[in-house]
Design goal:
The chain is built from 14 helices and 16 strands. By secondary structure, it is α+β, with helices and mostly antiparallel strands.
């Protein structure tokens, strides 16, 4: 993501918005391509060498904020730096410093009284370690950040880099917001699940309510806390890419205005055309769920199955059952399938189901799990045990 000093905004009355770049603009595409080429041409070089090349290219350009922003995203998202040394730098330093101590004082220009210089010390340490002088010299401080070497570069297409830049501008708007209001509707159930997972992952303070069209999510921003935390603001910004993958969404945030000591409104919706850089989740978590849905839809029944369209608000988190069922007469039921065996996952899932307290929530449990029937028996809803595949006919019997 970007830092606040790289954020470019425009103000109109009581509103504030980022100054997005035109992804199709020839000049911006040329700049993105040039930066990508510079990084690609410095594979294996040190971070310091790469930074020097980027600064030389920047020169006295007037669009330095755009260039610095694109550069930061490339370095953070597409580059892998690592320590490149034949021996751990601390071990190299230990040998070199020991040799230097034996020849103390080590001088730049040897004379009659001071015969040891840096080259002699490095040569002695290299001989002891069985290395060349160049290997010792190159690795001596290879663990310093500027000396880390570019070992991998996954270049994005120039247009994708510009899209990522626009997304990062919108994210930076949320670093200091007081309150974030999000309305989401008309999106796929899996996107709701990914959205709530992002809220939980980033430990955001939130409330969720159902609306006629979908959900309304209110997130408390870092400026609403007793003590402003930029770290919390960054976590809030990390939530945005998951929202961008939804359809029918709208966002409003109150952003502090230092000049007026008040706030301005930042509004965003899908018409802006921002693109998420996150990988979209698949429709089903497992083959068990996918197979069950496919087989249930083949049954002749008055019940209609939908995927993850209901939620249970647990205050600090949200439980979204895997499936919902609606009967022609208006009755509804929910189903959660537990087929994953990791102990930590089971503990969290059972805790959520207990706290939900919903008798209309059936739970299907794989007999392959290392969990006793006593642990499951305390759940408020009906429990269905299954072995390999969950039989939709048995679920249908329980529904009726």
């Amino acid at each position: 993501m970007l830092t606040l000093d790289l954020l470019r905004t425009r103000v109109e009355g009581g509103s504030i918005a980022p100054r997005y770049v035109d992804v199709g603009h020839t000049g911006h595409l040329r700049l993105a391509r040039a930066l990508i080429d510079i990084l690609a041409g410095h594979s294996g070089d040190t971070r310091g060498c790469l930074q020097t090349a980027l600064e030389e290219y920047a020169g006295d350009r007037v669009n330095y904020r755009i260039q610095r922003g694109l550069t930061k995203l490339l370095l953070d998202d597409s580059c892998t730096f690592d320590v490149a040394a034949v021996l751990a730098p601390q071990d190299l330093r230990r040998s070199v410093f020991a040799a230097a101590r034996r020849h103390h004082p080590v001088v730049g220009d040897p004379d009659l009284f001071h015969g040891a210089d840096r080259a002699q010390v490095l040569a002695e340490a290299a001989a002891e370690l069985g290395l060349t002088v160049g290997e010792v010299d190159d690795g001596l401080y290879a663990d310093l950040s500027d000396n880390h070497r570019l070992v991998k570069f996954d270049p994005p297409p120039p247009a994708a880099l510009l899209e990522r830049y626009n997304e990062a501008l919108a994210q930076a708007m949320l670093y200091r917001c007081r309150r974030l209001l999000v309305d989401v509707s008309a999106t796929e159930p899996v996107r709701f699940r990914q959205l709530f997972a992002a809220i939980k992952l980033n430990r955001l303070i939130h409330t969720v309510t159902r609306t006629d069209q979908g959900f309304r999510i209110v997130l408390d921003g870092p400026m609403s806390l007793f003590r402003h935390s930029l770290r919390y603001g960054v976590r809030m910004a990390a939530f945005l890419p998951s929202l961008l993958q939804c359809r029918g969404w709208r966002l409003q945030a109150d952003v502090p205005d230092d000049e007026s000591r008040g706030s301005r409104r930042f509004s965003l919706d899908e018409s802006v055309g921002l693109v998420s850089h996150h990988k979209a989740w698949t429709a089903y978590d497992s083959q068990v769920e996918a197979t069950f849905a496919r087989r249930f839809e083949k049954l002749s029944s008055a019940w209609t199955l939908t995927r993850e369209t209901d939620f249970v608000d647990l205050k600090e988190s949200v439980l979204i059952p895997d499936f919902s069922f609606r009967h022609e007469d208006g009755r509804t039921r929910m189903l959660e399938i537990i087929g994953y065996w990791r102990p930590e996952y089971l503990a969290r899932k059972l805790d959520k189901l207990q706290r939900a307290g919903r008798v209309d929530l059936m739970v299907a449990v794989s007999e392959r799990l290392n969990v006793s029937r006593e642990e499951i028996s305390g759940l408020p809803g009906e429990v269905i045990w299954f072995k390999g595949r969950l039989d939709p006919k048995e679920v249908l019997v329980r529904l009726d």
